[in-house]
Amino acid sequence: MIHIDPRDGTPIYRQIIDQVKRMVLTGGLVPGDQVEPVAGLAARVHVNPMTVSKAYSALVDAGVLERRRGVGLFVAAAVRRNTRDDREDLLDRELRSAAALLVQMQIEEDEAARRLCGHMRDFRVEEGNDHE
Prior knowledge:
With about 130 residues, the chain is mostly helical. It has helices at about 10-25, 40-45, 50-60, 85-105, 110-125, and strands at about 65-70, 70-75.
């Protein structure tokens, strides 16, 4: 579900693009899934429909979404998931956001690294991904 953070310095259309891409990369949206219509998303998140339309058009141009005339917008059948560039781009954006929060909270690097490693270990165990 897309959420707009008005305090985020990122333009709204970019937040929509980033969140749709994140959902595709993480499996929250899969090829063939229909995305929320422009008018519905615009009304739900209180933004101009042109902003949503601009974001969706960029996602169509990038090959993430495809238009089906008279039906709506869907995750493209041939969408590229988990390409190295896409993963690195998503990871960099997420880490940049986390780093900004850590600096704001005056958390030291060693403390942040220790906590991140702990969360990664916990996640691997919870998800059965512990291959170490």
